[in-house]
Amino acid sequence: MKSLQTAVVFIVMLFVLNVSLSHAEESLRIDGSTTVLPIAQKAAEEFNKKNPNIKVFVSGSGSGNGIKAIMDGTTEIATSSREAKEKEVAAAKAKGIDMKPFIVAHDGLVPVVHPSMKIESITMDQLHDIYTGKITNWKEIGGPGRPITAVSRDTSSGTFEVWEEKVMKKDLVRADALMVASNGQAVQTVANNPFAIGYVGIGYLDKTVKPLIVNNIKDSPETVRNGTWPIARPLYMYTKGKPSGNIAKFIEFVLSKEGQDIVNAVKFVSLK
Predict the structure, then answer these.
(1) Taking the complete model, does pTM exceed 0.90, yes or no?
(2) Whether the domain at 2-106+235-265 and the domain at 107-225 fall into the same CATH topology
(3) What mean pLDDT is predicted for residues 189-214?
(4) What are phi and psi of 223, to 5 degrees?
(5) pLDDT beyond 70 at 78
(6) 226/14 Cα distance (integer angstroms)
């Protein structure tokens, strides 16, 4: 009789344990680009509503750091505002990791000035010359006779690397440029300085700064998506090999119509 009671207690304990495990909270870590951060955060929020047992942790340490984190195993999804570099792909392969890229949205880097600045448009050549230090005063491009404060992103940023490639043509940014760590800081710095110029992802534009027309083209979802905006780029999520389980579930959600509606809602550009 005693052995029967023991067996019953054991079976009950197993049942309770299985129920507990079935309702256990799972986790998913996402890290990387501060540009992609608003997309990842909002997507995680909506994804969690549909999957309350999956807790998604999102952080933005920069594109390069996100890609490094996926190689180190400290994140499951790396967000990046630029394509992984050849040396990063090689480093991953050396560790037996085949990084899989997923384009989740489009973005355009937009030069911004203070709303009081009496300049509406600029050329790619002028942007290059401002950021290399060849042009140092606003009067040289039709503005007031005041020195230009150039605001740039830190060199570990994917946003900086795209700017370096498309605007700087690999030339060095002027030594006196103010280097900031995020799109948000770039907006804040320009908003507080009437004679500053900076650049941010299209999703970070707000009324505190004024976007400039570039090469007679205005930034818009259409010009970014079709590539006529001269500083357009895709935004990525990287996984460690072909995704499965919760990782695949999240990527699929971001690429779904609902996920792409989120991309538009946070003012970036959806794939379609």
Answers:
(1) no
(2) yes
(3) 97
(4) -70, -30
(5) yes
(6) 58
